[in-house]
Predict the 3D structure of the following.
Amino acid sequence: MNYTSILSHFNIKELNEMQKATLEAIPKPNDVVLISPTGSGKTLGFLLPILQLLETDKVGVQVLIIVPSRELAIQIEQVFKQMSTSFKINCCYGGHSVRIEENNFQHPPAVLVGTPGRIEHHLRRKNLIVDDIKTLILDEFDKSLEFGFKDEMEFIIEQCKHLKKRVLTSATALDDIPAFVGLKHSIELNYTTAHKELKSALVIKSVRVEGDDKLEALMLLLGKIQAKSTIVFCNHRDAVNRISEQLELYKVDHGFYHGGLEQIDREKTLIKLRNGSINLLITTDLAARGLDIPEIEAVIHYQLPTTEDTMLHRNGRTARMSAQGTAYFLLDIGDHLPKFLDVTPIEESLPKKLVLPAPCEWKTLYIGAGKKDKINKMDIVGMLLQKGQLQKDELGKIEVLDHSAYAAVKSNKIGKTLQLIKEEKIKNRKIKMEVSS
């Protein structure tokens, strides 16, 4: 199979060593355990080889991918669609419309990706027929276990009576793989060591807080580094909310992300991060892995990681695929660097004067219709360029969801554009459009 055209959709000229290994190992008659860190290209690593396992004349679901989070399910669906094959993929997860998912099963996809709870729901309701599922992929399996999905995964695997192949992926090595997974004659591909060599591009720095205001120190650090993209990690939601309130006070563009938010709000935050409407994300460890997040220049440990795995996943958000990146440890009075940190950080001093991060050059336009309303990306491009009088370089990334869409527009143009299109229709329908909150 020629993968050149598929890779061109991702602007990739050549697969990395891990992806080449999966391309060879997964189609063979054995199970595969892939251990490779966040940011190493695992998703493409297992999606490419399963194309060799799919049969074009089959009607039912052939490949089932189980993931621990809705964000990861959405990411895998997007990557598969970007591959532009003839095969259909659908996604199911908590927070998504059950009715839409049930309707999708009327014409089942070749590939189904979803979270354990929602897949179990469809199995018990007899919405999902698993007779043709030959390949099972347990992506981020360690995280699924950590989230307490053992019983759901065990039930799902018990229902899949005709499995011929199991692929298990994890960002860290597993001490013991439960018997219910049913691995047979498995081969292990472990790329954690190779990834550590790539991490030479990661610079580690420590910042000592002077005085008793850690939040003020964070503001000084953000102003000093002026990174194009930064993630600030906290251990608790209240710390995320507290920092966000401070940034609101200073009118600094940012997003915040944790498990207490509604799914649509989490999704909008990630869309804005991807399209450049925000360059700063304040989050818990929920965003440390399994999310479709673009290249990050800097990671700040506002609250220190409690385990080595947590630190590695946080740091794995930057210096990816041998790009440059910096991880900062913000140390309050009484804070000590983690014992598992095996390098001596460079000490970074803080300025005396606060300089706010530069505002983002993009804003996000919300459009109240999406794929299920027969609206596609080209409809939006046409309207914004013609009726909104935007130049091509004033229109950025567009993402179309089931019942909404989001388009990045240059900040200095979005007001005028909204005025020009406020009475416009898309597909002969009047649709709500506004700056996304």
User: Anything to note?
Assistant: Residues 362-435 form a domain with the Alpha-Beta Plaits fold (CATH 3.30.70.330). The two ends are 45 Å apart (CA to CA). The chain has three domains: 4-190, 198-348, 362-435.
